[in-house]
Amino acid sequence: MPNIEAVVFAVVFLALAFDYINGFHDTANAVATSVSTRAIAPNHAVMLAAVMNFVGALSGTAVAKTIGSDIANPAAVTLSVILAALVGAIFWNLLTWYYGIPSSSSHALIGGVIGAVVAGQGLAALKWAGVKKIVFILIASPIIGLVVGFFMMNALWWLSRKQTPGRVNQRYLRLQILAATAAAFSHGSNDAQKSMGIITMALFSTGMIATFEVPKWTIFACALAMALGTAVGGWKIIRTMGGRIVKLEPINGFAADLSSAMVIYGASLFGMPVSTTHVVSSCIMGVGSAKRISAVRWVVAKRIVTAWIFTIPASAAVAALFYVAIHRLIGI
Asked: What is the pTM of this model?
């Protein structure tokens, strides 16, 4: 029987590694549009995203509690389950990052948890009400992002209807930096909390904490890991998000960033784990659709949606396979 503290340390290490990978995998969420429209230099944009991801990660723990307590019954959450869930999510994130596919770190982690729990304890161990709620918001949030982006873009065009295109672009080139700041903050407020929930789940399941409350050191560590990962940057996905879905002007970039910030932070306030990647890309599609349907490169959009659909089952399958190996190795 391995040392429990050593296994928990491994869980913490992998959770922070997931946050770090999430940071460079999802840097595009906050800076792609600003880089694409040249509102800000790429290196400056990444540093801005890193700082605001860190600040956003300190803003609450509602999402962490949802991830840690609403997916599976506490008795089913063993250390083998948690380790397998993290390995499955990390594997899928690295694979999609390598191919430049803006998939969802949230879907990967939730799929990993579901796959590991089912492999270890069976379907009955899942909290189906919680799983349905989480899956519903993961599906609904991109649709909401598409609608909000569409109407935001139309509203901005109406407000700018009496101005020349040159003046409009110049104004929104500056405002876009503020919108990117808000988008980065919202990204940190939602995504960093998912690893917080996983670490807290491990601490609670082993009796190291008496109640499911996220420790302060966990909040700080996850915020720092995501910020450091963001500082590394994810340039392959930035190219996909920034220019291959829709050709963006500064007003389009501002609309997309502001829309995604509103949807993501709203979800964070209600403890809803959304895919920031899905919300941002759907907001970009909504903004492009406001101009004309053909403005969206639907071939690229189809590739992204395909990744959305396959992420949960793929990461769940990988996590289930790793569970078998990890459980045999450590036996807990």
From this structure: 0.86
